[in-house]
Amino acid sequence: MNRSLLWLGAALFSWGIGEGMFMLFQPLYLQQLGADPIQIGTILGAFGLVMVMVHIPSGHLWIALGGGRY
What we know:
The chain is mainly alpha-helical. Helix content is 83%, strand content 0%. The protein has two helices and no strands. The protein is flat, with a radius of gyration of 17 Å. The model has no long low-confidence stretch (mean pLDDT 90).
C-alpha cells in the first residue's frame, strides 16, 4: 500500500469519527433547541432516508461510469 492510500484512509477514518460524533450529539442539540422526541426522531429518520436515497444511486452511477474495477 502506498503512502497516498494510507493518508486517504486516515482522512476517511477521521471524517467517519466526526460524522459519528455528529450523529451522537445531534439529538441533544435538537433537544436544547426545544424539539420534542417526535420531532427529533423525524429529523434523524429523514437524515437516514436521504442518505439511502443518495448513496445507493451514487454507487450505481459510479459503477455505470466505469468505477469500481481494480
